[in-house]
Every structure is written in structure tokens, then in C-alpha cells.
Write a structure and sequence with these properties.
Blueprint lengths: L1 H9 L22 E5 L11 H20 L3 E8 L4 H10 L3 H18 L6 E4 L3 H16 L3 E11 L4 E2 L5 E4 L8 E2 L16 E5 L7 E10 L5 H13 L5 H13 L4 E2 L1 E2 L16 E2 L1 H4 L3 H9 L4 H4 L5
Helix pairs in contact: 3-4, 5-9
Length: 313
């Protein structure tokens, strides 16, 4: 405290010279290199103060602090644009998903600019870089035996002539009775559910009653990773870097046992699945969206792997 008071009394003259900005910002040997991301806001609506305060502002504050310390800092963000929520909103507004994403991406960017959020790069997930990296990760999982193929009982609306993925169907949660549960999870109790488990399911497009129909999908074989994951978590928790809430939620998933997780959807708006027999499907948004942090960095610099595959720096 005494040292801080002394520097404060000296004023700006005591500060180190400001770091000369480089373009692009890349890791530098022998320096402290900091990559900062903030949670990608979903693109299908106008961002509000909760979005900014919840993730963007804290990341921006930390980025400013790092730059004041003279650390080599890259701060990236962007909009999450694939998935059923976008497709549903586009239908509602009479636009194509691409038109909707273009409109709201520009709106998000302008609002964050107005607030003075100091992104080094603000990108999006609907890019060639996203497709290339997501498909590459998929191929690596396939080659290493971490994917399963199985038949999934799925709700299909005969009136609309389509399978109802996630947000195209609502019903009563079979676990807690919440009447507006989605086809992938319940926002009230947090349980992951399959759409066919919903009670009183209803198509969100025409409000008709869907029927159960079989369809082939690909699954991430999470049980195969469970032992290695538990060992890694124990080491990480011992370091004390997780909040109590994060540890509690993770333990609850492991306590119930990991299950294979479906990573494909019967949609047109998404990253295409590069595998024969599944080329009419796209990746589930929660497989696809986290890869957006990598692909947005890749749209900023072709040397993006120096940030994401470079633990020594």
C-alpha cells in the first residue's frame, strides 16, 4: 500500500512509457502475452446493459489494465450467429438468416463502439475461417474415435415438413414441470433434455403437435473422456482457480455420469458436416460456437495459432 501511495503521489511521470501498438498483435518472446476474450453475444437481438455488464465490460476493463501494465495484450470478441435461434428469428422477421446476422452484427458492433469497448478485433462466427477450423476439429475427433453414430428419436412437424431442432419446439419439462422448456434444455432447472422427453410438445412455427420420427446423428463420446477429465479437474481444483459455483456445477455433471452428446442438427443454417450420410446436416451450435474464439482470432491474423497453440508464451 505504501508503494502504491508513493507512485500515486508522483503522478503520471512515474508511469512507464506507453507500449507502442503493433498490428497485428502477436505473442513476443520473453514478454507477458495476454489473450482476452469475452463471451460471444448471440446475434439475434439488440444487446442491452446486461450483456455489456455481464461479460464485455469486465473483459474490456481487464484489457485496459493489462495495456496500462505494458503487457502485450490482444482483446477479441464477436457475435455468435449460427443455430436455431437465428433461423427462428429470421423466419419471424421475414429475412434470410444471413440478412438477419448482417443486420444485428452491425448493430452490436456500433453499440460496443459507442460504449468505447476497446476490442482489438470484433468478428463473427459465420466466416470461412470458422468453417475450416470447426471441420478440422471434427475430422480430428473422428480419426481418434471420439465420435459415435446413432439413431435419434426426434420430433418432426408434418405440417411444416421439417425436424424440429432445439428452439423450434417447446413443451413441459419432464424434470421440474416448467411449461416453456426448450428442446435441448430447461432454463429453469438447468437439466439437459431430449426434445422427445418434453411433455405436451408444440412446434413453435405453426403451433401444431409434432410426431416422433427416427433420424441418424453424430455424437461426441464424452464417456470415453470421463476418467481423463476427472483427473484433470482434480489437479486444476487443487490450484484453487475455480469458483465454488463452477466446481459445484461441474461436479453435478460428473456425479450423474457423462453421456454421449449429439453434435449435429437437421438445419440449413450452420457449419456443414463434412461426412457422407450427414451432409444435409449442420453442427449443433454448442459444438460450433466455442470454436468462434479461435476463428475470430484467425480473421484478425493468419498467425492465430501463435495465440492458441503456444503455451510457452
Amino acid at each position: 500500500i505504501a508503494a502504491a501511495m508513493d507512485i500515486w503521489a508522483q503522478g503520471p511521470a512515474a508511469l512507464p512509457p506507453p507500449r507502442e501498438p503493433r498490428t497485428p498483435v502477436l505473442p513476443v518472446e520473453g514478454e507477458r502475452n495476454v489473450l482476452i476474450t469475452s463471451a460471444l453475444p448471440y446475434v439475434n437481438n439488440v444487446p442491452h446493459l446486461g450483456n455489456i455488464i455481464g461479460c464485455v465490460l469486465s473483459a474490456d476493463t481487464f484489457a485496459r489494465y493489462c495495456r496500462l501494465r505494458g503487457w502485450n495484450t490482444l482483446f477479441v470478441g464477436g457475435t455468435d450467429e449460427y443455430g436455431t435461434a437465428t433461423e427462428a428469428r429470421a423466419l419471424q422477421e421475414g429475412l434470410s438468416p444471413r440478412q438477419l446476422c448482417d443486420r444485428y452484427h452491425n448493430l452490436h458492433r456500433d453499440i460496443y463502439t459507442w460504449f468505447g469497448i476497446a476490442f482489438d478485433h470484433f468478428g463473427r462466427t459465420t466466416t470461412p475461417q470458422q468453417t475450416r477450423i470447426a471441420q478440422d476439429i471434427f475430422q480430428r475427433l473422428l480419426e481418434r474415435g471420439f465420435l459415435l453414430q446413432d439413431t435419434l428419436e426426434q420430433l418432426r412437424c408434418e405440417r411444416c415438413g421439417r425436424y424440429l431442432a432445439d428452439r423450434f419446439v417447446e413443451g413441459t419439462c419432464p424434470c421440474c414441470g416448467y411449461p416453456e422448456a426448450r428442446g435441448d434444455q430447461c432454463d429453469k432447472c438447468g437439466k439437459l433434455i431430449n426434445a422427445v422427453e418434453l411433455k405436451n410438445p408444440q412446434c413453435k412455427l405453426c403451433h401444431g403437435t409434432p410426431v416422433v420420427s427416427p433420424t441418424q446423428h453424430l455424437f461426441l463420446d464424452l464417456p470415453k473422456l470421463e476418467g481423463r477429465l476427472e483427473a484433470w479437474l482434480e489437479r486444476t481444483w487443487a490450484a484453487g482457480e475455480w469458483t465454488a459455483n463452477a466446481r459445484h456445477i461441474t461436479r453435478s455433471w460428473l456425479r450423474d455420469g457423462l453421456r454421449p452428446r449429439c453434435i449435429t442438427r437437421d438445419l440449413s443454417w450452420g457449419t456443414p458436416v463434412p461426412l457422407d450420410g450427414f451432409r444435409d446436416k449442420v453442427f449443433y451450435v454448442w459444438f460450433d460456437a466455442p470454436i468462434g474464439y479461435l476463428s475470430i482470432t484467425a480473421t484478425y491474423t493468419e498467425h492465430w495459432e501463435r495465440w492458441w497453440k503456444n503455451p510457452q508464451q
